[in-house]
Amino acid sequence: MEGVQWVRDAFRLFMRRPLPFSAMFVAFLLVALLATLVPVVGGVVMLMSLPLLSLGFMIGSRAARDDLPVHPGLFIEPLRGDARRRKTLLTLCAAYALCTVLIMTLSDWVDGGSFERLQRLMAQGDGTRGELEVVLADPRLGWGMVTRFGLAAALSIPFWHAPALVYWQGQGVSQALFSSTLALWRCKGAFTMYSLTWAVVIGVFGALVGLVFALFDARQLAGLIAMPAGLAFSTVFYVSLLFTYEGCFSVSDVP
Fold first, then answer.
1. Contact in structure between 7 and 201 (CB atoms under 8 Å)
2. Predicted local distance difference test score (pLDDT) of residue 129
3. CB 144 within 8 A of CB 116
4. Fewest CB atoms within 10 Å of the CB: 56, 97, 244, 254?
5. Could you give the CA distance from residue 152 to residue 179 in angstroms, rounded to a whole number?
6. Per-residue model confidence (pLDDT) at position 216
7. Which residues does the chain have with pLDDT short of 50?
């Protein structure tokens, strides 16, 4: 039940510093939003920053546990270290961005751009129901979704612990990617329970919210809960990454 414990510990730690942790996540979202406004370069920079997002939260989670300040500045803390580790981290970030772009390109080729059209039509809202039905009926959309999310899940395995292994243990890019993959394989039972626990938590929360609003005949207001709940759950997920790291490596391996 170690995977369940990771989620439980993450919620407990989040409740100790809910505002600072939430501020970290919101600050990252704002910076990412601003980055996407810059054509091409902004999107690449945003993708490169994702490994630093997970590492920044690991550092923040350890700081909260040690009663130290938690703030958005922790995202760039790893880049203030020695030059060798900084270079390795930036190389890791670039590799992640490159792999993500390749996955997106391949997925777009598989679905023929139907996923992009689906997103555009959903953003437009009313008046596009007929077009939505046409896009949803396209069999290429399903294959594209399988390709997109399947490869994204596969990519997360070597990069799950890699930033922390570079920053705290001084491993190189290849060694960190291999160590992360091996760690997830060895702890696959715990990660299975970890994933199932998250699915249950989110599912139960959604069911309870739906039930409460249905009892008060205010289903249309349920959307008001979606954004803050999504923010909270996303933040707790990133807080939990430290516990998955420490659960996969022995005490002697964790600095």
1. yes
2. 66
3. no
4. 254
5. 19
6. 72
7. 252, 254-255
